[in-house]
Fold these 3 entries.
Entry 1:
Amino acid sequence: MDNKIISKVFLWMFIGLLVTFLTGYVVSINENMLISVFSTGTYIFFSILELILVIVLSARIRKMKPTTCKTMFILYSFVSGLTFSSIFVVYKITSIIYIFLIASLIFGIFSLIGYKTNIDLTKIGTYLIMALFGVIICSLINLFIKNNTFDLIISSITIIIFMGITAYDIQKIKNNYTMIPEENMAIYGALQLYLDYINIFLHLLSIFGDDK
């Protein structure tokens, strides 16, 4: 049964990433759409909407109808694609594809580790999430300091943290698939892994991406 759930989780994660990347690319090649998305008020609105969708999905996943879950996940992926479009403007497309493949390999390895290991990753996951909060605070501080070396260190640590969180999330999905209705669990798991993958990808891109 857990294999069936894991397959659905990865399918929906792939759908979410596809929606995000296609949306981002389409927006990036349309100057008027770019200007509209990144005008101050609109960008703030989309950023807040992303946060609200994640919170609502995570908090109410058990009570939602499967169709509502799927719709909200696709909507979240679409809104993320709008804000994601900036990477297609800043970085070369060949660099984005190269980093995408590297991120996929890293994500795949740690997903497999999380799925296969018999070690309970619950405590490790708790420490990793605590470390992530620390990194977020450091990132906010660096918005004012604007130190490139510090930014590089933060990105490197964030990648390592999300490698571990990926393994933790996979194990959590595998062990707790009966806690939430099957269709909803597939969306919930897809959302968690989507966020893990995007963070690995974006921070790899910030370190190794080639600017246009």
Entry 2:
Amino acid sequence: MRKRVTVLLGGFSAEREVSLNSGAAASEALTTAGFTVTTLDVPRDVGAFHTTLLASKPDVVFNALHGRFGEDGAIQGILDIMGMPYTHSGRLASAVAMDKPLAKSVFERVGIPVAPHVIADRATVLAEEALPRPYVVKPMNEGSSVGVTIVTEDTNDLPFTRADWPYGDRVMVERFVPGRELTVAVMGDRPLGVTEILTGHRFYDYDAKYADGGSRHVLPAPVEPEIFAEAQRLAVLAHEALGCRGISRADLRYDGETLYMLEVNTQPGMTRTSLVPEQAAHAGVSFPDLVTWLVEEARCDA
């Protein structure tokens, strides 16, 4: 008998809309694969979440949440307490991967190249004392490039000058690495491919990721065989160093000489046209087979 699966989607992060799309696509694929599927739009009320989830009587929880509270170890911790098996990475790997400075320290420890960076407060950034231009300002723990700003020689709109800046007083300021955007999906212990992302935007920002026509995916990436192999090696190494499980996606920049790890996404997009399902299909793994594998690999850390 096929398992009962409850898909967590929506939630209350800045990536709610993306999560709704991922959850809907995953639910459809799971249904196609023969599972009994329930969807749960996760509320902020933990008691209500607990009650609603138990009422759906799942054997496995499919985590299709994105952003804070969905991929930073928070929801994973609740599911661990409940003893409820769930897909993707556990609470520790999720928390470390989402904390950009902490993740970079893990990458450096195992020899993965990263761009030089500092942690700076509002006054330091506005005084132009963090790093020389060009540099990138990143919130400490957001996904999908939310809040990321590239500051170049001709940039006037510095972060923090906007009245609605919601990401706190401390940010990561990172040297801007020009070059090509590459991404590698890791399924268990194997890389699925290398995709080059092309966009007319200054970088692969939120709109480039999700707006129609915002980017183009080239699979397999047209890079030298040794760069292709190295990108895959670094992605698997990062996946293992963080303690990820299930599926992850590593984002890298290639400046023509060095591959730099930008981040590892432990809850990558899961629509049929998202980067991970694209790479899986190219590797011969259909979308229903991909979500089935994730369910079969699900567990909790209780």
Entry 3:
Amino acid sequence: MQKDIVKTAKKILGTVLCLFVISVNLMPQMEVLRNLDDEIALSEAGDLMANLNGNLPISVYDTKGVAVSQDMSQSLSQIDESDQTLVIKLCGITVKQVNAVKRDTLMLMPGGQSIGVKLHTMGALVVGFGDVVTYDGKKERPAHKAGLEVGDIITEIDGQKIAGAEHVIKLCNVSEGKAVKVKVLRDEKTMEFEILPGFDAIENEYKLGLWVRDSTVGIGTLSFYRMDNKAFGALGHAITDIDTGSLLIAEQGEIVLAQVTGIKKGAEGEPGELLGAFSSISRRLGSIEKNSTQGLYGTVYENICCEQYPDGLEAAYHEEIKEGAATILSTVDNNGVKEYSCEIIKVYRQSEREEKDMVLQITDKRLLDKTGGIVQGMSGSPIIQNGKIIGAVTHVLVNDPTRGYGIFIENMLEAAG
């Protein structure tokens, strides 16, 4: 009988302990701990103290072993201006350590202007292969036979740096049918091929049997420029070749002010588009120096003032970005840059997401009526939350044009170098 009582008591105790552990894990404080980054800004430490304040006996100690107040009005920046290692304890047991670091303040001038992009790529991009028709009617593809692939960037022929598509044709003809040594860039690796040009009986010239491209144009949105050195960021995603999908490596280029001439409204399954125009006399805004998966970067020629925020805004660090209300700056008609309301509905902390760090939803009726939500050409529109630039719009969700992805401004600044 006594053994049965003990056994039953152990079962009851085990059940109680399980329920206790489950209830503890469901408490808001534990959710805060689970989502807490290993590094936070020193200025955010006060909010952390407040969020950890609750029913659980959680205490936080600074680098000197002094307990930090959980009063929301007090932050570590008021205690010590140097970096801190926070030790978080539950019932006196250390459960997590967090680095609280002092962040530099970087002022940015927000964009939102519609821009035309004129990009000249490095070398010549292989976008396809064509037939070389010989005198006896045979069809040859010398470059493809030698091992070149779509997406390769031809950088040199016989030791000469390639200046563009026309240069490839010229050097091929100069060879007079002799084999040429061709250097290409493929997946960031340099490779060398020897190609024997074929003589095309129809066009009466030597050919490698390939199609190449050396430039592209498009429409996007300026995201920001740094107020200290005029370095700009735009688009928030890469410019890729329309045929191959390959990232275009910028040799030189320019952004100019574009005019929105119309809107193709977005709908479910059909992404919309801003129709824009620019010309050789459009206002020149800046030079392009880099095209990357995180956007387009370079230097503006002069100050470009934002009417809504003429004094500029601070750049936010990723840990400051929260789910909730925000705004975007964008140009969707001839009335210039306007501010529209949106909602940050998901924030991702994984750095490998590249240009898809957060999900936002357009809530502004004016913008929804005009565009249906996010459309092509709005990529790069700066996102603002709590008085800081937190990122830029990058993509629209095809099945729901009211929603799209955004990139952290912190990641854009890092990509800009």
